[in-house]
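When time allows, look over one protein, given below as sequence and tokens. The question is which stretches look regular and which look disordered:
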Amino acid sequence: MAILLGNTPKGDNPDVLKVIVLGLRMPRIVTASIVGAALACAGSVFQGLLQNPLADPFTLGVSTGAAFGATIALIAGIASGMAVPVAAMVGALATLAVVLLLAKERQGLQPATMILAGIVVSTFLSALISLMKSLDEESLAVIVFWMLGSFGGRDWTHVIFAAPYFILGFIAVLAYARDLDLLSMGELEAKQLGVPVHRSRLVLMTASCLMTAAAVSVSGVIGFVGLVVPHIVRLLQGPKHGSLLISSAILGATVTVLADLLAKNILPTGEELPVGVLTTLIGGPFFCYLLWRKKRSGHKAIL
């Protein structure tokens, strides 16, 4: 904090401290915040839009598409600079385009069809990733580590790369928060209340996938943040999406930063755990607890 305020503790080299704080730690914290906020916000949208309490930012296969793009870059040996995040972003957006194309019907985009298309595309891409890993064992460790999710080595270029996509997507979903409230009650009810269902669904879906793609492209796969955080916020303040999206973004950023801090310091040997592994290990049991709590309270749905 002293460095950020322009003050340097006595006896410390100011140049070294600035490099450590502003050049290493701050971009990592900001990147983790963007990723957590994007995943939690996207999770809130998917759960309301698809009317599925188990939906998360990876439901439509966007994360698998990002992993596929990153895998191609790593195997091709172009892992320097921003090559991997760019390849991951391209893979995620291409996957989204394929899923939307497969899910498009005469009646527009239907939630059930989108989920099915996402599962099919994700499964196919996962098989391709496994094939590429088996054919190139030299890149296996790097690919696996990237897919496990980490903020190690992230700098301001990663922040600059991901931030615009998150900001654009976040503004879009906030603008359509009222439509999302009505869509979460059902398509027929939303139509009767004057919601342009197909347009709103497409905008919300695209914006959420854009945020997810930006997050995954700079961090790898960070599990359970987009699934658990919206549930926690919904239990605390209700289902209204205007405030839910903002609170989910704040809590998601906080959870991800804390998970990264824990991943760096939990092992006594000083080794760093992948953040995605840690969030899954913590998020899985916690989500089971939420299910158990809801079951005991007599509610039929988490939403």
About this structure: Strands lie at 104-105, 108-109. The first helix runs from residue 14 to 49.
